[in-house]
Write a structure and sequence with these properties.
The complex is a heterodimer of chains A (161) and B (635). Chain A is α+β, with helices and mostly antiparallel strands and 161 residues long. In chain A, 42% of the residues lie in helices and 11% in strands. The longest helix of chain A has 13 residues. With 635 residues, chain B is α/β, with parallel strands linked by helices. Classes of the chains: A alpha+beta (161), B alpha/beta (635). Chains A and B meet through helix 2, helix 4 and helix 5 of A and strand 9, strand 11, strand 15 and helix 18 of B.
Amino acid sequence: MESNKISCAAIAKIKEICEAHNNDAGELINILHETQNTLGYLPREVQVEVAKNLNIPATRVNGVVSFYAFFTEKPKGKHPISVCLGTACYVRGSDKVLEEVKKVLGIEVGETTPDGVFSLDCLRCVGACGLAPVLTISGKVYGNVDPKNVRKILENPEFTK
Amino acid sequence: MKIQTLKDLEKIKAESLASLELRNEVAPDTGDETCGLEKGTDHIQILTCGGTGCKASDSAEIAARIKDCLKQFGVEDKVEVITTGCFGFCEKGPIVKVMPDNTFYTKVKPEDAAEIVKEHIIGGRRVQRLLYIDPETNASVNDSKHMNFYRKQVRIALRNCGLIDPENIREYIARDGYMSLADCILTKTPAEVIDVVKRSGLRGRGGAGFPTGNKWEFASKSNSDIKYVVCNADEGDPGAFMDRSIMEGDPNSIIEAMAICGYAIGAKYGLIYVRAEYPLAIHRLKTAIGQAHELGLLGDNILGTGFSFDITIRYGAGAFVCGEETALIHSMEGKRGEPTLKPPFPAVEGYRKYPTNVNNVETWANIPVIFQKGPDWFASIGTEKSKGTKVFALAGKINNVGLIEVPMGTTLREVIYEIGGGIKNGKKFKAVQTGGPSGGCLTEKHLDIPIDYESLGAAGSMMGSGGMIVMDEDNCMVQVARFYLGFIVEESCGKCAPCRIGNKRMLEILDKIVAGKGTVEDLDKLEDLANVIKDASLCGLGQTSPNPVLSTLANFRDEYMEHVVEKKCRAKQCMSMLNYIIEPDRCVGCHLCAKNCPVEAISGELKQKHVIDQQKCIKCGTCMSNCRLHAISLK
């Protein structure tokens, strides 16, 4: 596996994060959290680099990255959208909200729009069950979402600025 | 300043008490209508909810605007604005409470901030339009004590939520915080501490209900210099937010309880495994740990006793199975969160192979009170085998969505109709789901069973961690079962075949039924598969995963039969069994539907009745949303 696709700065950053955790493989999840926070996502090359620093097989790093929903191997859009599919939102129709978002953006869950503005994911419970169904865009919660209003929310000019 | 003796701790408590006394709700209801500074008080506190739900509705902005406004009137010295944890009544959030006036404002918006200050604080008149309206009497209610939502609640685990500032350890101390820890390490032997927990009858609130005292005893008997105390804060049940609210509203209660356990079992290290998706809870926990350190309530030689205890935070990364304790431990070790067979139990071989005691957030939150008020007091609440209270996240098709805490033994009917205020929009109750993806759906006939571990289990559901989702006639139970199963299939770690493969096959059968292609034999197949998965799976997640299917099959068999025999979905949720129909008596022949239909399935001359060709229709619903006369319906 070649790791020539990431910048020297990224390699240095990964090294720094691993060292801050004493290159301890037991800290792998914390290391991946910090790396994802810094670099945005965890592509194959980054995983290989982490594995090198911790002196563990890259398969082990990939096993962890692919196991946990929080880690992503693909870059997110500028404004990540998450539709809540927790039970409280589901029984109030969030599945229909999700369908509408997919329809409006023309992407599936886990994908990013070609212009890089939006990416779409699902999550399980934001904790704003009183506002169900909810979706979040860049962390901001939109409550009581009606599928009919989805287009209006997404067409807010703020997002395409 | 470091607290070195019990006296130091009592001193801080005495200093902080005055601020909290204002928030005492025991003040007699004199019918006095004046409020605010008009009343002659020179100290008022405005509490705003800083829980995730209210924050999503701009509660931080409300607090900021109130502060600005107080400055404009020059009364910022007399009126304090305090951000608390969750009040629980999320349906009516954001909530703003004014003390000592006992006024509970609901659904407050940032633009209401000025009016609250101007009218209530300065003018001495309550803002009537923001008060809670009792749906039965239509009268406005000033204070929370007189609301049905709160009347039947007993708040033990949530005692400080919505009352204290969770980012100020002194307010926690004023509420007798850390007194239990002091009492344990100064006057009790570890064995005595465990005995108190055992006598209280407290059982694990994470779902399974194992007696907490016994768990501690096992860990204490393991011989090792290094042991760990773990807080399971990996609340993965979709639609449940009990643990998060406790962490956000009262983080110190968890810290104190973990330290007590550390003393009891001989552990110096504590770990909190918390979901990375809970940034606010993480922030509050970190703040509390930092403050406890500053005061010497965590760290070396606590209160000069030689007992040392420290806590670090570990992040989860979004895997439901990590709520299972062996999986959680593997995750903390930086591995995939796959469960392993027990024994060895974590009490013998846990984190990094050392003895480990794992308890859930709500279990921890109960511990300090048990020592404050005594195990007999705690055991006097609840039922014979389930002591104390239980916190539920009440959500779904219910009027009062929120976080509630009731004594064990309260009936589901009381929770849904009295506290929850009944079903939304006057619809008919259909089912209540407890226990999340591991629990089951209960019906009308179960509403009078008492909430306790045994009764819910016997009815085919389980206590679970506290999600309680109410469903009405518009929810299709086959779809609900499919929803939970979809969750399980996504979250199954894949280690054992029954859970990995069995649940996938069950989901395929449910997909088939929902698509209108199911047969009666499919229902038997579902049941067979469910029982095998239940018996043969490795961990608790797998063993309980068929519960939503089994309980809906048992309680809503007629609905399944309608789906497979008549191809009918009474809740009108299964699209395959529904058709878009143009009502001839409403159609005026405007042709708008036909013009917009993407597959040209609609025919009809202008000003004549139109018809949909069901063979061509792809059920996209475009016609329905375009019809201005509501002439198109789903049947």
